[in-house]
Write a structure and sequence with these properties.
The chain is an alpha/beta fold. The chain has two domains: 3-255, Spore Coat Polysaccharide Biosynthesis Protein SpsA, Chain A, CATH 3.90.550; 257-332. It contains eleven helices and 13 strands. The strands form two sheets. Strands 1, 2, 3, 4, 5, 6, 7, 8, 12 and 13 form a ten-stranded mixed β-sheet that branches. α1 (15-25) links the parallel β1 and β2. The longest helix is centred in the C-terminal third of the chain and has 22 residues, at 264-285. Belongs to the glycosyltransferase 2 family. This is Glycosyltransferase 2-like domain-containing protein. One of its GO terms (molecular function) is glycosyltransferase activity. Pfam families: Glyco_tranf_2_3.
Length: 335
């Protein structure tokens, strides 16, 4: 069987960041053939055109496949042609999991064996980032999902997280592992930190694991996809781990907004999905304590927003609770 590494990158309205990511991928050194699958989640700007032009400028016709129309279910799940780079429209804004799943399905239908690296489009890799993951994965087959060392975009000598995060289910709080530590100290440490889940900005899967455990759960539009996957993976007998020598720069998702950039509408939408996904995940995996979690999050989240005077984020909290109780799924409506 031919070993192949496929890199899946999802774009939504931030093609300049995606192009920066792709330019970094061109520098990768790897012992296996590397394929790229770029998915566009129905961007409302000219992302698809810009990505098409970039691909045409850097790859010959025989090395590229650009699909102007959404592939049918049969075309997505069956096929032999697998060029160096593929650009796929997903047909809607399906969120992180739904959009990446289009690329995963396309890749898995065309791979016999190997690995898949799901990267955020706001990342940039170093030449040896991928080979370091392969070196780890091929010596520890019991690991079903690897995380890279994420470093700050503007301060690449500072760790953003060492592979992933801790998660505290009673309080629904996440804490990035070794955030703020120097990269040199993290890489030289003999300590193996505990991870509850791998950070979603860089997810490295063996193909056999994706076939056994399945795709990302697109019940989550944004947030908690990686927590859900890590729980399912552990239930299948696999572990998760950090590959310290695989270093990836990460900006932090512009598409979900940030309080510092003044885009309140994006931030409100992101908070809605964070709250809704928290409830879905807690109900799915912590059901015995769910009633307490449900009340605690409401009280503590509302109190924190009031104390910090972020009044505009109270309605997304209320609406998320309402929609969870009504089993309403915005994933089908916000395309």
């Amino acid at each position: 069987m031919q070993m192949v590494v496929t890199i899946v990158v999802l774009n939504w309205c931030h093609w300049t960041e995606t192009v920066a990511c792709l330019n970094s991928l061109r520098q990768l050194v790897c012992v296996y053939p590397v394929k790229w699958v770029i998915c566009d989640n129905a961007s409302s700007d000219d992302s698809f055109l810009q990505l098409t032009q970039w691909i045409n400028a850097h790859f010959s016709p025989s090395d590229r496949a650009i699909y102007a129309e959404v592939l049918s279910e049969n075309e997505l799940d069956h096929g032999d042609h697998f060029p160096a780079v593929t650009l796929l429209p997903t047909g809607g804004n399906w969120g992180f999991a739904g959009g990446n799943n289009v690329g995963l399905r396309y890749a898995l239908a065309r791979m016999e064996a190997g690995y898949v690296w799901v990267l955020n489009n706001d990342t940039a890799v170093f030449p040896d980032s991928l080979q370091a993951l392969l070196d780890c994965a091929e010596t520890q087959p019991e690991v079903g999902l690897w995380g890279s060392t994420l470093v700050e975009w503007d301060a690449p000598q500072q760790v953003q997280c060492a592979g992933g995060c801790r998660y505290y289910p009673w309080l629904t709080i996440t804490r990035p592992v070794w955030q703020g530590m120097s990269l040199a100290a993290a890489q030289q440490s003999v300590v193996i930190p505990r991870l509850d889940y791998v950070a979603g900005a860089a997810l490295f899967f063996p193909v056999k694991v994706l076939r056994e455990v399945g795709l990302l759960n697109d019940e989550y539009f944004l947030f908690y996809e990686e927590l859900d996957y890590c729980q399912r993976l552990k239930s299948s007998g696999y572990t998760i781990a950090w590959c310290r020598d695989s270093v990836v720069r990460h900006r932090g998702s512009a598409s979900v907004g940030h309080s510092a950039n003044g885009n309140r509408e994006q931030l409100k939408q992101a908070n809605y999905y964070e709250n809704l996904s928290t409830l879905k995940y807690s109900f799915n995996f912590h059901r015995s304590r769910f009633t307490v979690i449900f009340i605690l999050r409401w009280v503590l989240k509302a109190a924190a927003l009031i104390v910090t005077q972020r009044w505009f984020l109270l309605p997304p909290l209320w609406v998320a609770y309402r929609d969870f109780l009504a089993r309403r799924d915005w994933r089908q409506e916000k395309k």
